[in-house]
Design a protein that fits this description.
This protein is of the alpha+beta class. Helices cover about 20% and strands about 35% of the residues. The chain contains four helices and ten strands. The strands form two sheets. It has an eight-stranded mixed β-sheet with strand order 1-2-4-5-6-7-10-8. A two-stranded antiparallel ribbon has the order 3-9. A hairpin with a 5-residue loop joins strand 5 and strand 6.
Length: about 200
Amino acid sequence: MNAPNAAGPQDTALRDAAPGGTAVPALRLRPAGEEDVPALVALVQSAYRGESSRAGWTTEADLLDGQRTDPEGVAGVIRAPGSLLLVAERDGEPVACCQLERRTDGSGQPVAYFGMFAVRPSLQGGGLGGAVLAEAERLARDEWGAREMHMTVITVRAELVAWYERRGYVRTGQRSPFPYGDERFGVPRRPDLEFELLVKPLR
């Protein structure tokens, strides 16, 4: 496996993010390498687009057609300086993933950006997503010194926004446009898509 561009867990047992949570059986989180790209593209696509995504609750199938990402996009995340793509696996099979990226805020303080978050649809709702998010927050805080976690969420995805709010994320009202016309990010099914920045203090 190619060495990751940022320090991260090499073999971390995941724990449920709920208060008093118990260990999630047989799950490990590790940095992704380029050999993981095909499996991660398939995982992300299955979690967000098409009929397979409807088995979970975080689908974007009613909002967007087409692809969610592609091999070039995933490989770019793995290779980018200051970026870390984490994969959660069970018995050698990827079941979740997320991206962390080192950034700074307007005052130059270190923050982390959280993205490319996907959980296998059949495993959604069982604590795996919360476990991956909690470990990403711990890594960003303890190993990178990040003061905040930042992410962007499509505003009309009310259930997903509420899920993050229950985990301490705050809506900022800072919005950015969806990249209409760029099919690398999908083909919109409605004209009002936009992103909002969510932030959580880590210290």
